[in-house]
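Possible regression after last week's pipeline update?

I re-ran a chain I had predicted before the update to compare outputs. Posting the input and the new output here so someone can diff against the archived version. Not blocking, just want to make sure nothing changed silently.
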Amino acid sequence: MLLLVCPAAACDRLALSEHGDGGGDAPPARDAAPRDVFAPDAPPDPNADADKDGIPNGVEGSATARDSDGDGTPDWLDFDSDDDGIPDEIEAGAKDAAGRCASTAKAWPCDTDGDGKPDYVDADSDNDGLDDGDEDANGDGLLGCCIRTCGKPSGGQQHQCVLGADGCGHGQRCQAGLCLPERVFLCAQGETDRTVTQTFGAPIDPLLGTKICTTKAALSSYIGGDWHVVTSPSASYADVALVGAPALARTMAGRIDERAASREIAALLLSTPTSEPHVGKSRAALIASLRALGSVRTRVTASVGKTHEHYDVARATLLELDLAAPATVSTVRDRVLGVLSLATAPHQPQFGVAGRELVVRLTSVRRFSFKHDPVTLREVRDVNGFRVDAGDKSSWRLVTIAAVARRAAYDDPSRETRRLVDELTDGSALATREHVVDRACDVGVFESGVLTMPIDFPPITASLRLVVDGVEVGHDRYTFDVATSTLTVAPALLFAGARLVLGSLRWVRQLPDPF
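New output (post-update):
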């Protein structure tokens, strides 16, 4: 799953590159009143164009005051007649020399799916089950940062896209003046083409379904402490007022519960000051403190690296915890929160089946203030392109997200527990509080042992469920280096003809809040 997050003020319909300056042309807001347009007393001229969208009033049903989206503004005065966030002038499409729709060679305005409703009044122009506004998220009529002509980005792409040396988007190459392939996921920025039912062709769309991206309405996210966390819609979140935490320490905590019997996950978030510059040592100290609860064994230890925000991270450590007496996951979660915070979590109703054998999966992030050049005031970056710690120890925070589940449930492939635990605690679900979620996307197919993406591509963090020919592969069979965005697969998996499907790879876009 790819999660795209952006500043609260700009998130609703814009999907910007991390390096963009936000200067792109934004589409008009949905249901916005037409600009400087007023209904006349006399019938409108059918040959005029009152809303300046390139479509004559008569074609837009001025004689009957047609109002396709029912917003109270007739189509001939409405610059977004179907309220999908894409202006009519874009959806009408280009004309050929004969005045027909250039893409279909039939009547203009264009009707991509031939259902009798032109695209500008059809919320699903290609009839693929995806609303046009979800496919073209910023309503500019372009596919993310996929460029048509080498070195010539169109519209908002000029401000929002970081192009390669040949003037093409990521995954494209300049050939005879054109950027090819025309459509590729790497440059699409999480968008799909509203006029094509399989944007990236077989086999990606058939394997993943045509619903490449889902809107933020299908997700849940919560702001608390100094974080913004993304969860499944079934989860609940609550801030926790710890008892006995030092007031000056600014210790913050939160609980996340998945109470359904098929899930039974109790998670926590904790933010505390830290004086330890090495996040790996902080992780070791956290693990050592858990031994107060029972026997602790490390099943998986992920490498120390960088988050999508360029903070230091010790990611996805999976522990096995054996208790002396059975306890529910929510009880154990509160005990874990207590030993990690040196405080007490207030009582809450418990849930889950009591057990002695559990797993705890955790990720810890060391946050810090970023260093700026005193002359240019620009952020200083290291040789790998990462932001640099300013050295202000008062800004250092250790933010930990951890999830507790019964071991039998986590290891049961028929349950959702493992997927939800892994996605919640891989680090990509955790953002700073000024960011919000835009979309979630499922991506990709590759046919080699290494999948590499450029460092300036919107950063990717690993929440991987690797599937080979429909069978999920164990985490011990592949590695993912978030610093270089490189996935390496065990050679034994690369047998002839195998396709490796990244069934759950998260793409997290973080942008500084301009306000």
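Follow-up from reviewer: compared with the archived run. Confidence is low (pLDDT under 50) at residues 1-39, 202-214, 441-471, 493-515. Marking as no regression found.
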